[in-house]
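From the pipeline queue, job 12 of 40. The input is one protein chain; the requested action is below.

Action: predict structure.
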Amino acid sequence: MTSPLARRLSAPRPNDHQARQRELLRLLARLEFVPARHLHALVAPALHTVTFWRWLQTTHAQRLIWRHPVAPGRLPGGIAASNGAPPPRTPMLYGLTAHGRAWLEREGVEDDLAVLERAIVRDWRRPELKTGQLAHDLLVVEWCARALIGLRRSPMLQSVEVVMEYVSATSESGQPLQRFDALVLVQVAPTLPKASNPGPIPWTWAQPGAPGVLAWAVEIDRGTEPLVTLLGKSVMYRDLTVSGHYEATLGTKPLPVVVTPTARRAAQIAREWLDGWPGGRGIAAPIDRLADRHGGILWGRYKTMGFNPARDATLWEDLGLTRKQWDSQQECKQGSDAS
């Protein structure tokens, strides 16, 4: 089996149509749907913008993917101009069709067949979206997509896997006991590879016990859940961590990552979390403190939830990775590209 790093170093050429198609469909098999504004950076950032959009429309015409318009105001962060002008094109969501999933099956690109079993497909002509939970689901996708964009650009990335609505534990009768909005499992290399040329996203499940592995349990809060529910979540995370359940099932302890609509809500949740799991794992941030100007998803302004007073925190503390180290690897990569 080809290693994830070898796959990245044998990246396809920017004009490789089949490789682009493969990367697009593999992404949509995991994220359910993605706003059009993220697809270019995730699938083929080296391709000219106009060329990419023409190719995307061709792929849609082949019925491998569906598309659905979405009101600009529903997209996290908004995409309208500062003067309130409408966007130049109607915002679209793209997702996988049954035909697209069948293409992935025929190509045999997924080592883990569970990816295709989990993939949510919709009708090409009339993709039905659950409007009642669309705002929540868009926030989950937004966090994951922006995290993937940052990871994809890093030469440190060795592997990544994303599972939406990940059921982490079940009862004896098979009923879910805990469900993450998303599980993101990442493996990074401690040093820059000699020949770094990041290419396609290296989708694969990190091996249990492998070095440089992190698991992020993403929890999107829209301010609607009673605080007592959040207290219950902290207790569940505590119990499953202490019992060793996560290490047995994931090979590592997940870090709960709670994203809230406001700083006030983040503080309220942190107080409940502290009651349920004092000194425990978990970080939180309001969505506006994860903007690119604050470090983005990967290096935004998170705070601990299990300590009083709360302290600044990052997604990377289990590895001891600092922003300076991360940025230095990026600079080394840019230097090697220029040489």
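Job complete. Residues 131-152 form the longest helix (22 residues).
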